[in-house]
Amino acid sequence: MYILGIHTGASANASIVEDDNFLAFCKEESISRIKDDGCRFNLMCIDDVIASANIKRDKIGLVIISAPHLPKDCISIDKNNADILERFNESSDTVNLLQLVKGSPEIQVSNIINTTSLQKRLGLSKNCQILIVDNLKSHILSTNNFIKTSEPILHICCDYNKNFPDTKIYYSNKESFSIINTKKLSENNGIACFWDSAINLLGVDFDIFTDYANQGENRLGNDLYDFFSLEDGVIVNINNLDFSDVFAQFATKLTVYDFAASIQYAIEKVMKDFFLYWIEKTQVSRISLSGSLFLNPSLNAMVASLENIKEIYTSPINHTSYLSVGNCLFGHLAKFGNNINAENIKNIYCGKAFPIEILEGYIEKYKFSLKRHSDVPTVVSMLISNNYIGAVLCENIKNDIEGKLVNSIIATPHLSNFVELIYERLGQLEGTVFNTIFLKNDFQASGMNLKTFNNIPIRINEDFKTKTPLIVRADDTVLAKIIENEESLLVYIMKKYYEFSGGTVLINKELTHEGRGAIRNPLLALKLLSDGKIDFIAYKNGLIFKDGF
């Protein structure tokens, strides 16, 4: 059975599975070249995955949609629902279904969908079922399938959504996956809402917020913490206060740094209560975190430091960037029962193949030179040691969903002033994230404590700071990506560069240009090479340069 997963919110994406075998995945930004593109229904990525899977639309038996932005003609509103009907009439051609029913919990979004119109829009058969999924469950389901362990896992998702509870807890082992019943939260009283409101008030990104907190002084953290209580294992606000009023009251008394530090303190303290409760209740020591709240690296580091937690996993990328994967898994559960194997995803579609023969055809057009070489990692190490910027056409990277979907990355040396050159060359926006990529074996050998499945801030050794100066945080932690040692061009380059210079390779694993979407099409990387934005492109058997390099 073919299942189509669609996420229509920010960072829109689509996936197709046949039973539990993934056939295709695509993010909208990969086609439109607009970063985090989405929040609409007319998505090119839907057509792309159907074409890539090479199936006919009438063969799709189930469609799962999250963050539903639907065309007006696919929504039917009863005349008795006056408030919703008024909002519907005032909306544009595309309607955010969850916003439409906000404040009306008795309205089920699935009941106001005109299924027939939606089937026609998508070119589906009349027998195709269409479901709206809870974002939170999709977060957890997609995360679950990128963790390689047969041990029991406690999945925690905290993601602010005005129409769903903002905390959900699931428990899984290798052969089962079930929800732990918790008290359903009402609107605007969860911890994720608290975090989201603070971010919006300061008008900063998630990662910048924690930097602010590191520079500030906690002056009101205990007062903010007192607003919360733990009921049936779920964090709720005692008086169901409007957080915006609370923040407005305190923000006038504090600098932005002190305000951020106070918020951070309260969040970490109340979440510590939360985790200690569930660890004791379930006796599970391996934790998976998903949802926007866990884009807070300092919070994740606090969770990882708890004595009874053996391992922790957090998503290596923006949590909405692969929600269609979770949607497909949700559909798989809906059709085939509650059993789900941790090894369900046996392969990930990596996008259209671009063999070197195709790239070679563009060499004359763009005046490139193709130099085959038996030891590409050594050549690349020498180039990046001399401040050259290069894209690497890499194969799959285990333990990192985005790595499995990205065709090109950018590698840079560890020199402290190098990022300015990258900003100047590529026109990157402020806040571009560089990561230190560690090979799992090398990371363990470094003496740093590896208490992670994949990606949390880790306090680094003193002698390591000079090797990763660009990404050492104010609290002496580094946001590390851990990948398996394997036969991959990226891994070989990392090993060779470390031998060559003693420093780590910094990776912007989504090569972007001027705030545009990630370069996943090697032909776009060739365009950057032609424009002088990068100096070379490395692939398994050689390198491509501009003539005269």
Uncertain residue ranges: 342-350, 397-409
Q: Using DSSP, what is the number of strands?
A: 23
User: Ends: how far apart?
Assistant: 52 Å
Q: Please state the structural category.
A: alpha/beta
* Major sheet: arrangement of strands: 15-23-22-16-17-21-18-20-19
Share of helix among residues? 25-40%
Largest sheet: 9 strands, mixed
Query: In angstroms, what is the radius of gyration?
Result: 24 Å
> Residue-averaged pLDDT, rounded?
75
Number of helices: 21
Report on this structure:
This protein is α/β, with parallel strands linked by helices and 549 residues long. Helix content is 35%, strand content 20%. The chain contains 21 helices and 23 strands. The strands form five sheets. It has a nine-stranded mixed sheet with strand order 15-23-22-16-17-21-18-20-19, sandwiched between helices. Strand 11 and strand 12 (234-237) form a beta hairpin. Helix 11 runs parallel beside helix 12 (297-305) and helix 16 (376-385) crosses helix 20 (489-501).
Short description:
The chain has about 550 residues and is of the alpha/beta class. It contains 21 helices and 23 strands. Helix 6 (about 135-145) packs across helix 13.
Descriptive keywords:
9-stranded mixed beta sheet; 20% strand; 549 residues; single chain; 5-stranded mixed beta sheet; 21 helices; alpha/beta
Blueprint (SSEs and pairs):
Blueprint lengths: L1 E6 L5 E6 L2 E7 H5 L11 H10 L6 E7 L2 E3 L10 H9 L3 E3 H4 L14 H8 L6 E4 L2 H10 L8 E6 L8 E6 L4 E3 L11 H12 L3 H10 L5 H5 L2 E4 L2 E4 L5 H9 L4 H27 L3 E5 L6 H9 L5 E4 L8 H14 L19 H5 L2 H4 L1 E5 L3 H10 L4 E4 L7 H5 L2 E5 L5 H9 L8 E5 H6 L11 E3 L17 E7 L5 H13 L4 E3 L13 H9 L5 E4 L2 E5 L3
Parallel strand pairs: 1-4, 4-7, 8-13, 13-14, 16-22, 18-20
Antiparallel strand pairs: 1-2, 2-3, 5-6, 8-9, 9-10, 11-12, 15-23, 16-17, 17-21, 18-21, 19-20, 22-23
Helix pairs in contact: 6-13, 7-10, 7-11, 8-11, 11-12, 16-20
